Each structure stands twice: as structure tokens, then as C-alpha cells.
Amino acid sequence: MKNDLWPVLMVGCGRMGGSIAAALTSHRQVFAYDPKSDLPSDTVHVTSLDDRRLPQKLIIVLAIKPQIFAKIGQDFSILAGPDRVFVSVMAGIALKDLENTLSVGVPIVRAMPNTPASIRFGMTAAIASSSILPVQQEEVTKVFETIGELIWLDKESDLDIATALSGSGPAYFFRFAEAMIEAGLEQGIDKAIATKLVRQTMIGAARLVETANIPLDVHRQQVTSPGGTTAAGLDVLNDRSSIDLLLGKVVEAAAQRSRQLSMMD
Q1: Which residues bind NADP(+) (predicted)?
Q2: What region does 58 belong to: left with phi over 0, alpha with psi -120 to 50, or beta?
Q3: How many DSSP H helices and E strands does the chain contain?
Q4: For position 19, what pLDDT does the model report?
Q5: CB half-sphere exposure, 18, CA atoms < 13 A
Q6: Residue 264: its pLDDT value, please?
Q7: Number of Cβ within a 10 Å radius of residue 8
Q8: Percentage of the chain modeled with pLDDT above 70
Q9: Which residues pair with 148 in a beta bridge?
Q10: Which residues contact 84 (CB under 8 A, 6 or more apart)?
Q11: Tell me: the pLDDT tens digits for 106-125?
Q12: Distance CA 153, CA 111 (A)
């Protein structure tokens, strides 16, 4: 199977890059380049960007910090070739800026995975440059479907919104769970018990959403009995649309920050 898939060169093996590389090694050949991080096992370690072992067909995943790319991005232009695709998982660097730095006309994809990609349950949103060929885009699709699900966007501006929803989204779920645990403590329950209850509830609810193909509001209604405990709690969440207003501000702030990063030099 590895012989049928384009190899990947992972440039940057920090938390996200290393997780993606590790998840891909069982399916395809993965080269890894990062002078400052420990490289994942089962990857082919390269120490220079002109390593002769790098094949002609190659997906180059740029997983370094945006501020580092701003300083050394032009060094990666040596990797450009007719059967090579650059994939940036760096926040805030637009397609046009990537192209201007790497090489005009090279096929480029901007992708925003999230941290569950490390356990192959990620959600990735992506946008491709106009120069990418269908076969190249399909190979990129195969990469990200290895670590979860992928959705292709039609507009680059939608990537800012996707970043706010799925890229940053896990942190919001975690924060909500933290608040629930704290609320349990205030009601007098032991922290270990509250943590166990909330963690497994979050896991179980996610599995329900995954396995039962019904709308979220139906899931909610199935838990909610008129006049019951769930209804009492939801009344507080829904009072004056408080949860909708709060999350609207959360997503707006994250999307706006993504837009700001894209406009920075």
C-alpha cells in the first residue's frame, strides 16, 4: 500500500507535525526534517532539504511556526518540482504569500487540522491554489483522511471560520468540561468523581453523535424531559440566548484573530 501513495516530507516535527507524521507512517513513506525537534520513529530522517533520497513525487507538509517561515521560507523553494505539492498547516499565511515565497505557480494547499489528528480523529479544513492538479489534490486528500476527516473549501476566507470552529474547537469543549467539573465541586462532589463523570459524559456524547445519524437538536431533545433536571439546566443556558451569544463572540474572536494573522507581514 505504501508504494501506491505519494511519500510525505514533514518539515517541522513539533506537536502537530510530529503527530501527523507518526499517524502517516503505517500507510506511506514519511521523510522528516527538523533540526530542532526529536523526529518520529519509523520516519526517514533527512538533514538537508536537497537530500537525494527525496523522491520526485512528494507532498511537502510545512508544519513550522509562521514566524520561522517568515525568516527562512525561501529556503524551501529548493523543494519545488513538477510532481510536488506544498501543504501548509501554518496559521495565518495566505496562499498568495506562500506562493510568493516558495515559487510562483507551484501547487499549494492551506490546511487546518486539529489536535485529535494525533489519534486519527482529526477534522481538517483545506483550500487549494488554482495551480493544483486533480491527481495532486486527491493525494493530499488521502493524507488527511488518514488522520480523520477532511473538507475542501471553495473560498480561502472560509478557512478563518473553519479555524475558529474546528481548529480551535477542541479547546472550547475542554474549557466547557472544566467549567462543568468546577460547577460539580461547588455543589459538593469530590473532584475525582466530578472529573470522571464529565470526561465520560463528553466521550459518550461524542460517540452518540458519531454513531446515530440524527440532528443535534434531536439528541438534545432525547435527553430532555419536560420539567426535568436537564430542562432546568437548559433553561439557564438558553436564558436570553446566553449560550448562543457567548459562543457567537467566541467564534467571532477566533476568526478575527485568524484574519489578523493573515494580514501580518
Answers
A1: 63-66
A2: beta
A3: 10, 8
A4: 87
A5: 10
A6: 66
A7: 27
A8: 98
A9: 122
A10: 56, 57, 58, 59, 60, 106, 107
A11: 999 999 999 999 899 999 99
A12: 10
Kindly indicate the confidence band of residue 2, based on its pLDDT and cuts at 50, 70 and 90: low
Is residue 191 annotated as involved in ligand binding? Answer: no
57 has binding-site annotation = no
Q: In angstroms, how far is the first alpha carbon of the chain from the final one?
A: 41
Helix (H/G/I), strand (E/B), else coil: 55: coil
- Helix pair 242-263, 229-238: axis angle to 10 deg: 50
**Phi/psi of residue 247, each to 5°?**
-70, -30
Domain boundaries, given as residue ranges, for the chain: 2-160, 169-263
Question: Is 63 within any annotated ligand binding site?
Answer: yes
DSSP state of 115: G
Q: Which CATH class is domain 169-263?
A: mainly alpha
Position 234: which residue type? L
Distance between CA atoms of 108 and 223, rounded to whole angstroms?
45
CA 250, distance to chain mean position in Å, is 18
Cell readout for 64 is 513550522
For 170-183, give the secondary structure using H, E and C: HHHHHHHHHHHHHH
Residues in the chain: 265
**Fold identical between 2-160 and 169-263?**
no
Tell whether 22 is in a known binding site: no
Distances (CA, A) of 47 to 50, 51, 53, 139: 9, 7, 11, 25
CATH superfamily of 2-160: NAD(P)-binding Rossmann-like Domain (3.40.50.720)
